[in-house]
Design goal:
With 241 residues, the chain is an all-alpha fold. The protein is 64% helix and 0% strand. It has a single domain, classed as Fic-like fold (Orthogonal Bundle), CATH 1.10.3290.10. It comes from Clostridium punense.
Amino acid sequence: MFESIDEKKTLLDSKRPLPEYTVKSIRENLFLEWTYNSNAIEGNTLTLLETKVVLEGITIGGKTIREHLEIINHKEAILYIEDIVKNMEAFSEWQIKNIHRLVLKGIDDNYAGNYRDQQVIIAGAKHIPPEPFLVREKMEEFIKWYNNEAVKLHPLERAALVHIIFVGIHPFIDGNGRTSRLLLNLELMKNGYPPIVIRVENRLKYYAALDKAHTTGDNNDFIELIKGEVNKALDLYLKFI
């Protein structure tokens, strides 16, 4: 199922250490695309170029403070997960809460890093997340799954399921989508894969695959979507290295 990806990953690994400035250039481009698309999926109206300008510290007229903070916060969250990878930290609820705290910092400080105490629905989805009093239990089960059954999975499948399970629980009032995509890439990066970008133009396909996974237990569409993006990311690195 992952033979082609494994071959590309092996080829990329064989070329390590990778050229410093080429990697720096690719990384900056991927992180810009990741920040722009992840926020655009959630309704942020800043363009790719405007996102780049905000990341450089410039304010865009006519855009809300929230939209600016969503860009700045996402950059800080990426830097945080890079530190997690570098320090080889174990996956934990504390880590997830820290990522979410960065995502919502200055936007909703009361709920940043705190599990929801109200019921929520996922707009346009058939799946209904668990009631708030079940969130803590579901998150504990999630971490237990990660430390046991998930260990046996291919890293790409494990990353996809981390996203599926987390967003199905929807543990926070807001910011679950951005956090889930950060967690997905955290898992990929921990295993030596480049981060991927789920593009805003694929939003409907992405949401449909997620809802299918949550309502039928069939994860294949979502895994295939992630596999396609991993292939693209690996191809990008191999093209320039």
